[in-house]
Fold this protein.
Amino acid sequence: MLDVQKVKVSIVTPSYKSEKFIAECIESVLSQTYDNWEMIIMDDCSPDNSNEIIKQYVQKDSRIQLIELKENSGPAVARNKAIELAQGRYIAFLDSDDLWLDEKLQKQLAFMEENDLALTYSSYKLIDEENNDLGVFITKEYISYSELLKTNSIGCLSAIYDTDKLGKVFMPLILQKQDYGLWLEILKKIKSTQGMLEPLAVYRIRKKSVSSNKLKAATYLWKVFRDVEKLNMFQSLYYFCFYIYNGLKKYK
C-alpha cells in the first residue's frame, strides 16, 4: 500500500480581492496534519492588499508560492495555470475565502488510497462573512456522470484528484461553473466515484445579489450542458429541469 504521507499534494488557490480572508485560508492549510503539500496561489491582478499578506506567508514557508498573472483572466485561467505548475501527484482546490479542517488532507488521501479512487470530495460546513455557522452541506456518497449532470454535489473546496490515474485535467474556460465542468470531464473517464460524508472543509457564503447570481448560474449551467458537454437540446432541457426542481425544492 502507498504511504500517502510521502506523496505531495498541490493546492490550487485563485486570489482576487481576497485580503479580508486570505490569511485565514492559508492558516487552515498550515494547520493540516498532513504536511507534504505545496500551495500555489494565483493572483488574478487583484487591486487590493491581498498580495502583501500572501508575501508574508511566502517568506515564512517555502511550500507557499505566489504567482501573479499579467492580466485579469478569471478563475478558470488562474486555476489552470496553477495546475500546469503543480508538482504534486494530487491536485486539491481551495478558494481564497474558504477553509479546510485540520485533518482534511490526511483523512481524504487515506480514503482515496483505501478505495482506489481517482477523484474524491466531501461534505462541508457553511459560514458567512463573519464566521457565523450556517449549517452543513451533506454531499452524496456515490456519484456517476449522469447523476452529476442532474445536480453538482461536489464542492470545489472539497475535491482532490489523482494525476497518476487521470493525468492533469483542466477546467473549461468559462467564467462560472468551471469546476463543475472539470468534475464532469473526470466522471466521463471514470464513470463513477465516491465521497466522504464527513465535513472536511468550510465554505464561506458571500453577500451577493441572489437574483442576479441565480440568473448567471442558470446561464452558465446551460453553457456547460451545450458548449462544454455538447449535449443536444433535449438532453440539455432534461438536465436543466433538475436544476429548476432542486431550486424550487430548496426554497419551499
Notes: DSSP finds nine helices and twelve strands in the chain. The mean pLDDT is 92. Residues 210-228 form the longest helix (19 residues).
